[in-house]
């Protein structure tokens, strides 16, 4: 008899290959990663999906515009996993890796579409799966600063984000351990201070050995460092090093821990090491220019990234953020 994960992976792969299942007619696509974990791409930021007997947990929610397609993909996956025609399991949890709109835009509608099995409270200690409360949607988890930024008043004296998109469960420690297994594995939410922003979290699925990094690590562009919202170049490098501390390669940095970046393809430790080295090299070049008294305009014109631009595109925003961060 096939294991749950083997059965699920074969079903999803068959659906994608046939063009008639999860990915059919959609701009989002599901990639089986390992065991109960999938990577949903095309919704803005990458979304990690844990789906199994306990329901669905999402890491990030994509953009507002892609919410319908995200929900359709998750429902289709749930239908593939259902046994003997049973209704698909609901979305129970959403974890945000940052406050950015491409990670949180779908929060409100996805939470409303989900269902939390009660037994815990909004302080973050969910102690078990009791009876479902049909009035309560999926619970959103995030670092405390995500809630602070979403609930802050804008120029119109209204909160920046609708209250339904706010995280219901926040944490302010280095690591938050889920209080129970979800779909057969332990989950850790790891805060990385002052990296891409001051709201960054990574999510580690310990049983599947899959790490979701948010925008601390991407493969498609230079790092996006939001200095105005607490980001820093050194904090981002510290985050990349932390990823490498967690990840265990199978052989010569290849294979082993699977890493889902904020944007881009599925990776392993070797990809992160290359990216970390690139960022570190550019940091040292910018520091050298600052030590020589160069202005931002002069640093921008110095071509410090030309050996990487072919892969990562325009460096303008990254160099500015790096310069401002290091000057601080």
Describe what this molecule looks like in 3D.
- This protein has helices at residues 4-18, 67-81, 101-104, 107-113, 144-151, 233-246, 269-291, 296-300, 309-312, 316-327; strands at residues 29-34, 37-41, 47-52, 55-59, 91-95, 139-143, 169-171, 175-177, 187-191, 201-205, 210-214, 258-261.
- It has a domain at 4-215: Metallo-beta-lactamase, Chain A.
- It has 328 residues and is an alpha/beta fold.
- The relative contact order is 0.10.
- The protein contains 10 helices and 12 strands.
- A hairpin with a 4-residue loop joins strand 10 (201-205) and strand 11 (210-214).
Low-pLDDT sequence parts: 1-7, 9-25, 119-135
- Summarize the helix and strand pattern as letters: HEEEEHEHHEHEEEEEHEHHHH
Residue share in helix: 25-40%
Structural class: alpha/beta
- Continuous helix count: 10
Major sheet strand order: 1-2-3-4-5-6-7
Proper CATH architecture of the domain at 4-215: 4-Layer Sandwich
Sheet with most strands:
7 strands, mixed
DSSP strand (E) fraction? 15-25%
- Secondary structure: number of strands: 12
Please state the overall shape, judged from the principal axes of the Cα atoms: globular
CATH superfamily of the domain at 4-215: Ribonuclease Z/Hydroxyacylglutathione hydrolase-like
CATH topology of the domain at 4-215: Metallo-beta-lactamase, Chain A
Question: Kindly state the mean pLDDT as a whole number?
Answer: 88
What radius of gyration results from the CA coordinates? 20 Å
């Amino acid at each position: 008899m096939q294991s749950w994960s083997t059965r699920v992976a074969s079903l999803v792969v068959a659906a994608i290959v046939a063009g008639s299942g999860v990915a059919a007619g959609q701009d989002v696509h599901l990639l089986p990663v390992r065991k109960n974990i999938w990577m949903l791409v095309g919704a803005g930021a990458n979304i990690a999906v844990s789906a199994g007997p306990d329901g669905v947990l999402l890491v990030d929610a994509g953009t507002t515009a892609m919410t319908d397609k995200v929900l359709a993909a998750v429902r289709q996956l749930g239908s593939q996993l259902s046994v003997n025609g049973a209704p698909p399991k609901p979305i129970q949890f959403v974890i945000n890796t940052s406050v950015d709109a491409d990670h949180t835009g779908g929060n409100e509608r996805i939470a409303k579409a989900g269902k939390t099995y009660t037994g815990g409270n909004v302080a973050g200690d969910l102690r078990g799966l009791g009876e479902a409360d049909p009035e309560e949607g999926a619970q959103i988890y995030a670092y405390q600063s995500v809630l602070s930024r979403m609930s802050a008043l804008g120029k119109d004296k209204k909160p920046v984000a609708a209250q339904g998109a706010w995280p219901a469960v926040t944490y302010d420690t280095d690591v938050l351990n889920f209080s129970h297994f979800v779909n057969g594995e332990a989950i850790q939410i790891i805060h990385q201070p002052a990296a891409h922003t001051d709201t960054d979290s990574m999510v580690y699925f310990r049983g599947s050995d899959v790490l979701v990094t948010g925008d601390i690590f991407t493969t498609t562009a230079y790092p996006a460092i939001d200095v105005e919202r607490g980001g820093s170049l050194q904090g981002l490098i510290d985050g990349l090093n932390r990823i490498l501390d967690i990840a265990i390669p199978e052989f010569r940095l290849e294979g082993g821990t699977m890493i889902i970046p904020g944007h881009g393809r599925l990776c392993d430790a070797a990809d992160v090491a290359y990216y970390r080295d690139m960022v570190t090299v550019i940091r040292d070049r910018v520091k050298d220019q600052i030590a020589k008294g160069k202005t931002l305009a002069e640093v921008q014109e110095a071509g410090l990234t030309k050996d990487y631009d072919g892969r990562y595109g325009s460096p303008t925003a990254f160099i500015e953020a790096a310069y401002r961060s290091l000057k601080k």
